[in-house]
Amino acid sequence: MLRQPYGGGRPYDRLHPRIPPVHDGHVPLFSFEGHEPQVDPAAWIAPTATLVGDVRVEAEASIWYGAVLRADFGPIVIRRGANIQDGSVLHGGDDPVTEIGEGATVGHLCVVHGCVVGAEALIGNGATVLDAALIGRQAMIAGGAVVPPRLVVPDGMLAAGVPARIVGELTAGARFWVEGNPEIYRELARRHAATVRPVEPPYTG
Q1: What is the pLDDT of residues 104-137, one digit of tens each?
Q2: Is 111 inside any structural domain?
Q3: Distance in angstroms (rounded) separating the CA atoms of residues 12 and 42
Q4: Which end of the chain is more exposed for a tag (fewer CB within 10 A), N or C?
Q5: 11 assigned to some structural domain
Q6: 3-state secondary structure at position 52
Q7: Which domain holds residue 175?
Q8: SS3 70
Q9: How many CB atoms lie within 10 A of CB 161?
Q10: Secondary structure letter of residue 47 according to DSSP
Q11: Backbone angles phi, psi at 194, to 5 degrees
């Protein structure tokens, strides 16, 4: 059952057209102990993503193919315009609530566990962000990094390595992706919502 999300988020940005609704009953949403995913009609959920329990997805956010958001120990909140890319896994408890900020990006094959990701931050492909870490606004976690528990990455800074450490301000190249990716993925979600359809396998006799 689809319901409107509750909780924060800024007023709707009328400069961006809404993502066409794609909830046709085939998106894998599952209740857990009476808690159901709450998905705004203007969000896009890929048909092979899985949402379980108290997951809250705001307008213009997108959850991509093969992503798993399992909210059984505590809520998972995906703010307006954020994108959770293919194969990523989100899980966590309630101290803190796992939250992905407005316009933030979680790249492909990431693990995000019990932490807070700020608005328009970018978690690079294959990165892991662990419990109680705080990723600041427009900060970037380099691909493959492992952010240890309780690390604070300030606004606009880059963290990299295993374990991750803060290496400095964003380079021009990194800032290009941090600033541009939210709109790139809003537009890409609109295209997928409008055109992706199942394909029947060819008859082989």
Answers
A1: 999 999 999 999 999 999 999 999 999 999 999 9
A2: yes
A3: 11
A4: C
A5: no
A6: strand
A7: 29-195
A8: strand
A9: 13
A10: T
A11: -80, -25
Would residue 118 count as lying in a domain?
A: yes
pLDDT-wise least confident of 6-20, 24-38, 65-79, 128-142: 6-20
Kindly provide the residue ranges of all beta strands, DSSP E only, lying in the chain, ordered along the sequence: 29-30, 38-39, 44-45, 50-57, 62-63, 68-78, 83-84, 89-91, 98-100, 105-106, 111-113, 116-117, 122-123, 128-129, 134-135, 140-141, 146-147, 152-153, 157-160, 165-169
Residue 12 lies in a domain: no
CATH number at residue 142: 2.160.10.10
pLDDT of residue 124: 97
CB 88 within 8 A of CB 69: no
The number of domains in the chain is: 1
Q: Say what the pTM is.
A: 0.86
Place of tokens 């798993």: 68
- The token pair at 197 is 């359809």
